[in-house]
Design brief:
Enolase-like, domain 1; TIM Barrel; 2 domains; four-stranded antiparallel β-sheet; 14 strands; globular
């Protein structure tokens, strides 16, 4: 089997509500999504998606995905998509770095491999878990009152896991954490996500001021060096996502004891092939996980669900899915959908969901015969 054509689509995914990060420093209202279709000489078609959370959040740029695919396409055409490691190597040689641009190609190849084998991606990776996995909400709000409102909206939809965005103001962050904890149902999973919005001194002041609550923080400082510097000075469990980009990052975090949780962002780390190695490092070191689409449609949500289905339930807190946050549906209602705040992976060959091409419009680029 050979890859004969790579077709690229661009579409906008408007958010239902304006979304704030880093204490209101970053605002997002629309996501720039890239959908990739890979065709083969045996008639199988695979789909992938790359949707960064805006252009200003992390080094992942929507137009950069499309530019990266243009560079990599001549090196991918003619390869067997079922041999995902060969495709991965070809992309890494053609375009060093730029992992976010490689993720949709990787997803589409796994989709084809699963279809060819008659197995879901999760089963191809060694597991097919049909349990309902909690979806972590994403509570991007600026005030205590707004945070209560957004949490209530998600709780009404059955969500039991929440990522509450904080950062930027010590007093406000402490007040928000204490308010959320005062109204927190016993069964809920809450992660306080700083999104790199604290300096070292801000991180220590908030984390020390809330030690009695025993809450968990995600990405409490800009870099792994910052997290390492403050690590001996607080007792809070830490999750790392934005500084978890490469396998080397995962190895350092595990070796040096920098975090108790990995937040694996599939688009950020380069797709399923690379993310699976991070999963294995986490499991080998007793590190729990959240699995996240960086953003996007039900295709990106489903990719995250496949990886989560290969992780024992005790080690996977939740997945993050974006489908309840966007106002368009490019898949016509198909694919795993949020039910009472959970997602369940169907036993469907490959990815298990493809977009409605009519919803995508005309392609913006095409490579191959």
């Amino acid at each position: 089997m050979k890859i004969t054509r790579i077709t690229v689509y661009k579409t906008d995914l408007p958010l239902e509500h304006p979304y704030w990060l880093a204490g209101g420093r970053l605002k997002f209202e629309n996501l720039d999504a890239t959908l990739v279709r890979i065709d083969t000489d045996e008639g199988l078609t695979g789909w992938g998606e790359g949707t960064p959370w805006g252009h200003t959040y992390v080094p992942a740029h929507g137009p950069g995905i499309r530019a990266g695919i243009e560079t990599m396409a001549p090196f991918i055409l003619g390869l067997d998509p079922r041999r995902v490691l060969e495709v991965e190597r070809a992309m890494d040689l053609a375009l060093p770095g730029h992992l976010y641009a490689k993720s949709p190609i990787d997803m589409a190849c796994w989709d084809i491999a699963g279809q060819a084998a008659g197995m879901s991606i999760a089963a191809m990776m060694g597991a097919q878990d049909s349990r309902a996995i909690p979806i972590a909400s994403s509570v991007g709000a600026k005030t205590v009152e707004e945070t209560r409102e957004v949490l209530a909206r998600y709780r009404d939809r059955g969500y039991v896991a929440h990522s509450v965005k904080i950062g930027g103001d010590v007093d406000r962050d402490v007040a928000r954490i204490r308010d959320v904890e005062a109204h927190r149902p016993q069964n809920e999973i809450i992660l306080y996500d700083v999104n790199r919005g604290w300096t070292r001194q801000q991180a220590l002041r908030v984390m020390q001021a809330t030690e009695d609550l025993r809450v968990m923080f995600e990405q409490p400082a800009e870099s792994l060096d910052d997290i390492a510097a403050i690590r001996p000075l607080h007792s809070a469990p830490v999750s790392v996502d934005e500084s978890l980009v490469t396998l080397q990052d995962a190895a350092r975090i595990a070796r040096d004891g920098l975090a108790e949780v990995f937040g694996i962002k599939l688009n950020r780390v380069g797709g399923l092939t690379k993310a699976a190695r991070m999963r294995d490092i986490a499991l080998a070191h007793g590190i729990d996980m959240f699995v996240m689409a960086t953003g996007g449609s039900v295709l990106a949500d489903t990719e995250a669900l496949h990886l989560a289905a290969t992780i024992p339930a005790a080690n996977c807190h939740a997945v993050w899915a974006c489908q309840d946050m966007i106002t368009v549906d490019i898949a016509g209602g198909r694919g795993p959908r949020a039910q009472n705040g959970h997602l369940t992976l169907p036993d469907t060959p490959g990815l298990g969901v493809h977009p409605d091409q009519d919803a995508l419009g005309a392609p913006v680029a095409s490579y191959g015969g």
